[in-house]
């Protein structure tokens, strides 16, 4: 039985959250929100300000890889996923 869009969004959110928590040291500060937008699913990520560099990586390579893996996850589940790392306050 196919999953609903809400279930797919929740699983995509949990997938990305697992990846981010594996990269940072302070995984309790990781927050991921899933929203539906005109392009599909938007996953917004917040991490502690001191760990932004870990998530972005040198020259943006880490965040590019995270976005690619998450997009591929979306393709496998028939949804378009975009990831945005938000600036911590």
Provide structural commentary.
The chain is of the alpha+beta class and 89 residues long. The protein has one domain: K homology (KH) domain (GMP Synthetase, Chain A, domain 3). It has three helices and three strands. The protein has a three-stranded mixed beta sheet, covered by helices on one side. A hairpin with a 2-residue loop joins strand 1 and strand 2 (40-46). Helix 1 packs antiparallel against helix 3. The longest helix has 19 residues, at 5-23. The termini are far apart.
Please name the defining characteristics of this protein:
45% helix; 3-stranded mixed β-sheet; 89 residues; alpha+beta; GMP Synthetase, Chain A, domain 3; single chain
The sequence of SSEs as H and E is: HEEHHE
* Biggest sheet record: 3 strands, mixed
Unreliable spans: none
CATH architecture: 2-Layer Sandwich
**Judging from the principal axes of the Cα atoms, what is the shape?**
globular
Q: Which structural class is indicated by helix and strand composition?
A: alpha+beta
**Share of residues in helices:** 40-55%
Mean of the pLDDT scores? Answer: 92
User: By CATH's scheme, which homologous superfamily applies?
Assistant: K homology (KH) domain
The total strand number stands at 3
Q: Class in CATH?
A: Alpha Beta
**Backbone CA Rg:** 13 Å
* Number of helical segments with 4 or more residues: 3
